[in-house]
Design goal:
Number of helices of chain A: 6
Helix content of chain A: 55-70%
Largest sheet of chain A: none
Structural class of chain A: mainly alpha
Shape of chain A: globular
Radius of gyration of chain A: 15 Å
Order of helices and strands of chain A: HHHHHH
CATH class of chain A: Mainly Alpha
CATH architecture of chain A: Orthogonal Bundle
Number of domains of chain A: 1
CATH topology of chain A: Ribonuclease iii, N-terminal Endonuclease Domain, Chain A
Oligomer: homodimer
Chain lengths: ~150, ~150
């Protein structure tokens, strides 16, 4: 199934993609689902015993906001954006690229997993480590996004 | 990427799959994401103008609980389950089948979309119409689930 008709009315500019509220809502699902999977796999592989972890939490807005800034992609967000706005922008961007067919769920999980390091069970440490994984994801999908800002 | 090692420690019984909390967490993401897409496509196709809808909401537990009952799949839930438990069971079942590689995200969206009818913009009407779509999804994936109850 092609989903790209769902984005055909979005102007091909950074701001239009990054500030679309509907895209952010769809992206929220993609982000939480793929991170849950990456985290489950990571914890399972890191586990010393043969324990299998299955987990799923909402990815905090601080993780996503930090990733957007670290990837140098604040121009996709609205002016004077707070953490909540920046997190929505990450979600919108990811939804856009997925709907366009430029990346699959499996590829997103794979990129996050490859770039997860250190402790992600401890809430505070997770923010930095997970943000780093999302930064790499954003840098990867940046190639498929327009250069034009407005 | 294969995800089935994430379910290898789950006994192949209805109750073990349907009451696994981690599976339910992963499934929560799949359910919300796929329903958001199916709803967006449905509203876009039904729209009289050329309006494009992009939406995403958490699927209510009432929708999922009704779907499980209507599909005759309460044996997957714990005894004396309330709506919240029944909804978790639907999420766990969907995660299980997806992780096993028996269904793709696109197929889930397609089955939901094919079985959506009537008004889904009105909150009360949406419960019945969306539950019907999830019932069809459950009946479809039932084939890939174990017969054994305990």
């Amino acid at each position: 199934m092609d989903f790209d008709f769902l984005i055909e009315n979005i102007p091909e500019t950074k701001k239009a993609i990054g500030t679309d509220k509907g895209l952010a809502k769809i992206g929220d699902g993609i982000v939480n689902f793929t991170y849950s999977l990456a985290k489950s796999i990571y914890l399972t592989k890191e586990s010393s015993g043969n324990k299998v972890f299955r987990t799923g939490e909402k990815v905090s807005k601080n993780i996503l906001a930090k990733a957007l800034k670290d990837a140098g992609m604040k121009p996709f967000a609205k002016n004077r954006a707070d953490s909540h706005d920046l997190a929505n922008t990450v979600e919108a961007i990811i939804a856009y690229v997925w709907l366009k067919g430029n990346i699959s769920i499996e590829e997103i999980v794979d990129i996050l997993l490859t770039n997860l390091t250190g402790n992600i069970s401890h809430r505070l440490k997770e923010v930095n480590n997970a943000a780093n994984a999302f930064t790499h994801l954003l840098l990867k999908i940046k190639e498929d996004l327009p250069e034009k800002e407005l």
